[in-house]
Write a structure and sequence with these properties.
The chain is an alpha/beta fold and 193 residues long. It has one domain: Rossmann fold (3-Layer(aba) Sandwich), CATH 3.40.50.150. The protein has five helices and nine strands; from the N terminus they run ββαβαβαβαβαβββ. The strands form two sheets. Strands 5-4-3-6-7-9-8 form a seven-stranded mixed beta sheet, covered by helices on one side. A two-stranded antiparallel ribbon has the order 1-2. Helix 5 links the parallel strand 6 and strand 7. Helix 2 packs parallel to helix 3. The model has no long low-confidence stretch (mean pLDDT 92).
């Protein structure tokens, strides 16, 4: 069972897609991640992009904890249908589902005038390192990221660190058993005197 851990929709149960390649982030890992994000003040009023959304649990957890806008991108039709049902369970008006590939969604660019404060990237294990690197590059190239954006990549602990594009720098890493999370941010901006 997957559930929203905390916030306005805390305790509500979420459905998970069956027969697809989704693997929901465990409650323990989600709690650790969102404690970190809240400690950094990254959720209240945030614009969040959840790529390879699966059940939508990560993005919906962000919505429950105060995010203003959450875009959930999922290409698997059955999973996108489950996400839409989960959006109804959470009842947050700022959540939108994009039923398309991550690559096409990113190529379309962000909604007019909106940049993402938080990007959650949890691809299926069969997504290659090169494909992941292209997705991370598209976030920068297509101007999805706010100046102080925070990017989280979740992979198997056996996976290598993602290849970060120019415009994103590793700022931390955490391992939880079989799960590894890497955190990246745009480099500090130079102050011109």
């Amino acid at each position: 069972m997957t559930r929203i851990i905390s916030g306005a929709a805390g305790g509500r149960r979420l459905q998970t897609p069956s027969g697809s390649s989704t693997r929901p982030t465990s409650d323990r890992v989600r709690e650790a991640l969102f404690s970190r994000l809240e400690h950094r003040g990254l959720l209240d009023g945030a614009h969040v992009l959840d790529l390879y959304a699966g059940s939508g649990a990560l993005g919906l957890e962000a919505a429950s904890r105060g995010a203003a806008l959450v875009l959930l991108v999922e290409s698997h039709k059955a999973a996108a249908k489950v996400i839409r049902g989960n959006v109804g369970v959470v009842g947050h008006p700022g959540v939108r589902v994009i039923a398309d590939t991550v690559e096409r969604a990113l190529a379309a660019g962000p909604p007019a005038g909106v940049r993402m404060d938080l990007v959650l990237v949890d691809p299926p294990y069969d997504v290659s390192e090169d494909a992941l690197a292209a997705v991370l590059g598209a976030l920068v190239e297509r101007e999805w990221l706010a100046p102080d954006a925070f990017v989280v990549v979740e992979r198997s602990s056996r996976s290598p660190q993602p290849t970060w594009p120019e415009g994103l720098e590793l700022s931390g890493e955490k391992r939880y058993g079989e799960t590894a999370m890497w955190f990246a941010e745009p480099p500090p901006r130079e102050v011109v005197a």
